[in-house]
Amino acid sequence: MEADFWHERWDTNQIAFHEGAGNALLTKHFAAHFPKPGARVFLPLCGKTRDFAWLMAQGRRVVGAELSATAIDQLFAEMDLTPEVTETGDGLWYRGPGIDVYVGDIFRLTRAALGPVDVVYDRAALVALPPDMRARYVSHLMEITGTAPQFLICFDYDQKEMPGPPFSVPDVEVKAHYAGSYTVSRIDRKPVEGRLKGQVDATENAWLLR
Q: What are phi and psi of 109, to 5 degrees?
């Protein structure tokens, strides 16, 4: 998707994709598979997800990447944090206790700027990208995180019934993207309550990539 698409979504508050609480699959499975205290968890294309607060409450450090400064201003305000904001050549960094967020184009984010990553938590990134961008994103994410293990959440639905985003990323595509670099295991699946965006029956799948 073009950057203007996402800026307009945030500026006009068209954020039906935003969950009002920690993701149920995250809260059910994450700690069991990634129990390391103090682990640094990377959330690509994070928006203002409440998953930040849940992960921090579990003793994890978090780092995000998001295109929209509006989303990150709202994130810090809702967490009652005042960020330290610094400008780099490629974007902005918002920092607070236990949390860093890069605001800019994720494809311009480097491994050196991102710093060490213990786990990638991808709930909103892969499914936000159209098919012609997903392979590039997967390759870039592995490059900047040093192929860190991932907790990945995807939707599976009939793409003919809704154009996306979020897009359908079925099992076969997940394996095509990641099986060359990871052991890929689906650890849970559940129907989306109330249909996805109220429009289509969908399944939410949780994947473990090691």
A: -80, 130
